[in-house]
């Protein structure tokens, strides 16, 4: 037992090697161990009752945090004309978080006439934090303004019983836009029907008619005008100093982007009348450089304006009128076109900044005065309907200009003698002028209707004349007839002098302009001339053609009625001091674009002034502003021979 018990103890105590079994080679036999030990029976073990597993309480479901919706800022776009492709001028929404915009209709779409719906879906960059959202705006698409023309008709004899059928030309539209003119719409500028009364006096009369486009769904009707010449029975043409028309403010050109003050000899060549080559200009146009505006101090960075004003002071010292045009407001005032490389290119004035812009223009006028430039006028915007990709610009719809002029135009010139000019459309848009002047408040704040002739021709602006507004042609340049794609250099010629003289004549007799302002004063490249003078200060033929008007027709002169087109290719216009002036100056400009000489006999109604002789200044292919022997005026009649392709100015 002892041995057996000992073995049991050793086994219980873990004796022996874990790797080797216990030693069984000892002498004798090991007694077997009983399977059980006799003794008292143990008490039975009670099986415990398991405790119930508690049911876990459910965790509350958290309330989800709503995803914030980004804020979309997008003004209702200004109205557009049919045919205009959607761009960032209309599709210009912004958001308060980064993301992308998807527009419908998309950029480049040309929407139909009427009220159209525009929508944008904004997808935030972080869609886990912000929700996608959509905004909707409306756009008004107006009918387009058809580009209409009415060529000058042949002269009719004084006293003719005029009917529309006797007018040798009819209105038409360009670019294949078909249409008709109702004969009942033919009237004079004052609304009188055509009749013998229309031709009762020798001279000229403005005719108007309504062009009705065939595609009336997309084009509006348009009033179109022309000048009808009335020949006297006894002579080829008539000049009537008893029939005063508009007052002339002058002739000029632009010094936009001229950062260096012009030398005195150049200023004298442009604005003087004492040098042989002087042009006698009397108007200078400046650019209002986009100067940053401080909204806190309500002041501009005037250093941006200083350079160009030096030329304004020089021209004004020689008696010229000076006006200024902005090509763009400061970038901070604009809804920027993000497709452009520069925020100053394209875009729109932010309506929230309309008041600031008025103060900005007023600040320019006042600063110019400190630089010895008392501005005659300031423009609302240069070419608000043109969207160039490579230089300063800003788009305005007619409705936007109307709203600004009505609400803020007075503030722009308040406390100054400057006049407000608008709209300076690039093609002298009649529809835009009508919109501006159709608003009483806007019309009362606008003194001068300015416009350009790119893609347009001189036309009578009935709404401007009805309200007594001055009309200025404030920019145009002509390409030389000698320009060609296969040339890198050319010179101007007599044909260029005739081209600009015709444009000025038509502008003053039909458009009844008060001023004519060319574009570049000086060639930017003498090899490809478009300016009035070259870098040597000598006039180009463009300058010479303009000189035939500018040199003798001074600010304050009046245009008088003439037989404007007495025969094909011959134009006659007359100017002079107003009635009651201390001196009686008379200036007659004659343009002969024909390839043959023309002899013209002209009668004069002197209306109290004495005209006994007229001295010709003539430009031909071989002579430049060459003074000729005086012509005698006998019985208030004179005869002049106009050489082939020539411009002649007669002065008393």
Total number of strands: 35
Alpha-carbon Rg, integer? 43 Å
The number of helices is: 10
Low-confidence stretches: 1-42
Beta-strand residue fraction: 25-35%
Taken from the alpha-carbon principal axes, the silhouette is: elongated
- Report the major sheet: 10 strands, mixed
Structural category is alpha/beta
Descriptive overview:
- This protein is α/β, with parallel strands linked by helices and 652 residues long.
- Helices cover 17% and strands 27% of the residues.
- It is built from 10 helices and 35 strands.
- The strands form 8 sheets. Strands 14, 27, 28, 29, 30, 31, 32, 33, 34 and 35 form a 10-stranded mixed β-sheet that branches. Strands 15-16-19-22-23-24-25-26 form an 8-stranded parallel barrel, surrounded by 6 helices.
- β12 (203-213) and β13 (222-231) form a beta hairpin.
- α9 packs parallel to α10 (541-550).
- The model is unreliable at 1-42 (pLDDT under 50).
Task: Based on the model shown, name its key terms.
652 residues, alpha/beta, 10-stranded mixed sheet, 10 helices, 17% helix, 27% strand, elongated
Task: Give a summary of the structure in a few sentences.
Helix content is about 15%, strand content about 25%. It contains ten helices and 35 strands.
How are the elements arranged and paired?
Blueprint: H1 2-12, E1 72-73, E2 80-81, E3 94-95, E4 99-104, E5 114-124, E6 133-142, E7 148-149, E8 156-157, E9 172-173, E10 179-181, E11 187-188, E12 203-213, E13 222-231, E14 237-247, E15 250-254, H2 264-271, E16 283-288, E17 293-294, E18 299-300, H3 306-317, E19 321-326, E20 334-335, E21 348-349, H4 354-370, E22 377-379, H5 398-413, E23 419-425, H6 430-437, H7 440-445, E24 448-452, H8 462-466, E25 470-475, H9 494-509, E26 515-520, H10 541-550, E27 558-562, E28 570-576, E29 586-592, E30 598-605, E31 613-619, E32 626-627, E33 631-632, E34 637-642, E35 646-651
Parallel strand pairs: 2-6, 8-13, 14-30, 15-16, 15-26, 16-19, 19-22, 22-23, 23-24, 24-25, 25-26
Antiparallel strand pairs: 1-3, 4-5, 5-6, 7-9, 10-12, 11-12, 12-13, 14-27, 17-18, 20-21, 27-28, 28-29, 29-35, 30-34, 31-32, 31-33, 31-35
């Amino acid at each position: 037992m002892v041995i057996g018990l000992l073995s049991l103890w050793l086994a219980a105590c873990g004796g022996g090697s874990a790797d080797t079994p216990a030693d069984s080679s000892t002498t004798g036999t090991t007694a077997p161990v009983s399977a059980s030990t006799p003794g008292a029976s143990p008490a039975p073990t009670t099986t415990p009752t398991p405790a119930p597993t508690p049911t876990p309480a459910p965790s509350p479901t958290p309330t989800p945090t709503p995803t914030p919706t980004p804020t979309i800022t997008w003004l209702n776009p200004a109205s557009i004309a049919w045919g205009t492709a959607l761009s960032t001028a209309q599709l210009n929404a912004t958001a308060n978080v980064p993301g992308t915009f998807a527009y419908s209709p998309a950029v480049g779409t040309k929407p139909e006439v009427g009220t159209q719906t525009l929508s944008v879906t904004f997808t935030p960059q972080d869609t886990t934090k912000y929700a996608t959202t959509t905004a909707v705006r409306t756009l008004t698409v107006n009918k387009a303004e058809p580009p209409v023309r009415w060529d000058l008709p042949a002269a009719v004899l004084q006293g003719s019983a005029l009917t529309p059928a006797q007018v040798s030309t009819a209105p038409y539209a360009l670019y294949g836009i078909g249409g008709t003119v109702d004969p009942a719409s033919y009237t004079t500028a004052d609304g009188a029907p055509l009749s013998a009364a229309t031709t009762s006096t020798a001279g000229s009369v403005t005719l108007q008619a309504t062009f009705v486009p065939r595609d009336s769904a997309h084009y509006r009707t348009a009033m179109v005008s022309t000048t009808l010449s009335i020949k006297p029975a006894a002579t080829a043409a008539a000049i009537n100093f008893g029939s005063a028309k508009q007052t002339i403010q002058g002739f000029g050109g632009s010094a936009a982007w001229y950062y260096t003050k012009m030398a005195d000899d150049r200023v004298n060549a442009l604005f003087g009348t004492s040098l042989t080559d002087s042009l006698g200009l009397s108007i200078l146009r400046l650019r209002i450089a986009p100067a940053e505006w401080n909204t806190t101090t309500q002041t501009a960075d005037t250093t941006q304006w200083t350079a160009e004003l030096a030329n304004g002071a020089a021209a004004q010292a020689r008696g010229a009128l000076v006006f200024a045009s902005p090509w763009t407001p400061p970038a901070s005032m604009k809804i920027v076109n993000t497709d452009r490389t520069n925020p100053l290119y394209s875009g729109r004035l932010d309506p929230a900044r309309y008041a600031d812009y008025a103060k900005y223009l007023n600040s320019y006028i006042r600063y110019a005065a400190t630089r010895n430039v008392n501005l005659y006028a300031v423009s609302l915007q240069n070419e608000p309907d043109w969207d160039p990709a490579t230089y300063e610009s800003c788009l305005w719809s007619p409705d936007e200009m109307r709203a600004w002029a009505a609400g803020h135009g007075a503030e722009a010139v308040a406390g100054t003698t400057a006049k407000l000019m608008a709209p300076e459309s690039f093609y002298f848009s009649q529809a835009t002028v009508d919109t501006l002047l159709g608003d009483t408040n806007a019309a009362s704040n606008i003194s001068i209707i300015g416009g350009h002739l790119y893609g347009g021709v001189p036309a009578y602006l009935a709404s401007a004349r009805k309200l007594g507004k001055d009309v200025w042609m404030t920019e145009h340049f002509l390409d030389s007839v000698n320009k060609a794609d296969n040339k890198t250099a050319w010179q101007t010629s007599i044909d260029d002098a005739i081209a600009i003289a015709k444009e000025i004549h038509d502008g003053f007799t039909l458009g009844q302009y008060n001023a004519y302002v060319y574009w570049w004063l000086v060639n930017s490249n003498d090899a490809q001339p478009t300016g009035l003078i070259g870098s040597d200060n000598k006039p180009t033929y463009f300058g010479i053609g303009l000189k035939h008007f500018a040199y003798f027709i001074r600010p304050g002169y009046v245009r008088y009625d003439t037989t404007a087109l007495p025969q094909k290719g011959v134009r006659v216009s007359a100017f002079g001091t107003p009635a009651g002036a201390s001196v009686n100056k008379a200036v007659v400009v004659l343009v002969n674009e024909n390839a043959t000489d023309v002899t013209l006999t002209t009668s004069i109604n002197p209306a109290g002034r004495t005209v006994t002789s007229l001295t010709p200044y003539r430009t031909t292919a071989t002579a430049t502003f060459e003074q000729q022997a005086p012509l005698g005026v006998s019985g208030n009649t004179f005869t002049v021979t106009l050489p082939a392709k020539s411009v002649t100015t007669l002065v008393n």
